[in-house]
Amino acid sequence: MPDRDGLIVCGETLVDVVPAADGLWRTVPGGGPYNTAIAAARLGTRTALLTQVSRDTFGRQCVQNLLRASVDESLVMRHDVPATLAVADLDEHGAAQYQFYWQGTVNDVALPPLPDPVCAPAAIWAGSIASVLWPGREALRAWIVLHYADIPLTFDVNVRPTLIPHRETYVERLAPWLSLAQVARASVDDLEFLYPGAPVESVVEAWFDAYSRIEIALITCGAAGSLAFRRGESSTLHVPAHEMTVVDTVGAGDSYTGAFLDGFYQRGLDLSEALHRAAVAAAITCTRPGAQPPDAAELANELRRTTS
């Protein structure tokens, strides 16, 4: 176990509006950072979430959900503006595309003075929409550098072109974060938007050349599993997807990341084992509607079932 303990996740909280089985819609607390924090906490990692929430009904629901998952809310900042909504459109495979209601909401306001650190974590996570669209994204990055310069940072790209459609703007805003990251995570869809036509291996090589702190690049490939690249190693680690019946894919990537952080940094697993465990966690999430990551018992049971 590491000398430091736990995890701090930084980024947006929003509310997913997803189709229900009866043809109606239901609201589910979400957002990449929010789901990642819950995924790690449900697996047993002490996790704090630095985020902004509304004081409205949706915001209160989000905080209650955090508390049920035992996420530390001491870094949650509250505002008297509406919650941010993300309306999900699911295709025939359960994959989601989102339309965001962002302007004038809780994620479109200036950050208040950021709180003092609450712990000495094993790792920091940042990324998703907050890293490129929060008015206070530079202040957040400065806060991380000030308080956690020696803590490994995982940065999750998680591109949302419906919010920032201009590729060059996206690449420019991601660069300062990638320069701080020890682990960089993206999907093949993220890379295709950012670097159209470029092979994954070429993108990762360019990251290693441009950003000296990146030691590991994790690329998720949907049903094809995931790829892991380590600086200085010529071989690529391929982790197959774990096959289960898919209801939808909402929150699957966040469950993958939360389980990776829990396994690699908190439990000290080697990279291959941590990523296999992450793939199984993501698959379990896909078996139920919305972002509902597994708890430690559910993950352990599925891991035992697949090895028996």
UniProtKB/TrEMBL annotation:
Which keywords are on file for this protein?
ATP-binding, Kinase, Nucleotide-binding, Transferase
| Domain Carbohydrate kinase PfkB residues, every copy | 9-294
Which chain positions lie within coiled-coil regions? none
Could you tell me which Pfam families the record lists for this protein? Answer: PfkB
Similarity comment: family membership: Belongs to the carbohydrate kinase PfkB family.
This chain's protein is named Fructokinase
Organism the protein comes from? Mycobacteroides saopaulense
